[in-house]
Amino acid sequence: MIVGIGVDVVNVLKFGATLRAAPGFTDAVFTERESVDEAGVPLSESSLAARYAAKEALAKALGTPGAMRWHDAEVLVDPSGLPRLATHGAVAAAAQERGIDSWHLSLATEGDVAVAYVVAEGRGQSVA
What we know:
By secondary structure, the chain is α+β, with helices and mostly antiparallel strands.
C-alpha cells in the first residue's frame, strides 16, 4: 500500500549559487557517501540538486517529521545504477512508526531543473 508520496523541484542555478556561497552547506546536507561518485569524484551541482530534491520529497512523503536531520536520509546509487534511499535516525524511526517498508525514488535533471519523486510503501496508514 502507498503510505505517502512526495515531489520536489529545485532550480539548479540557484542551488549551485548556494553551494558556492556557503561552502559548508554540502557537508551539512549530504553525507560523504552521497556527495561523490563510486570513484570518489565530487558530484555535479545538478546531481546534488536532484539529491537535495529527493530529501525534500522524502520529507513530504513521510509527513515532515520534526526531528529530521539532513543526514538521516541518504540518496545512494545501487549496483545497477538506480537511485535509492537509505534512512537513519529520526527518518528511520518515523518510517517505522508509519509502517513504511520501502521507498521508491525517481530523479531527473533537465537544464536548470532537478526533480525528485518519492513513494513510501508499506503496511501503515497514509500520512495525507
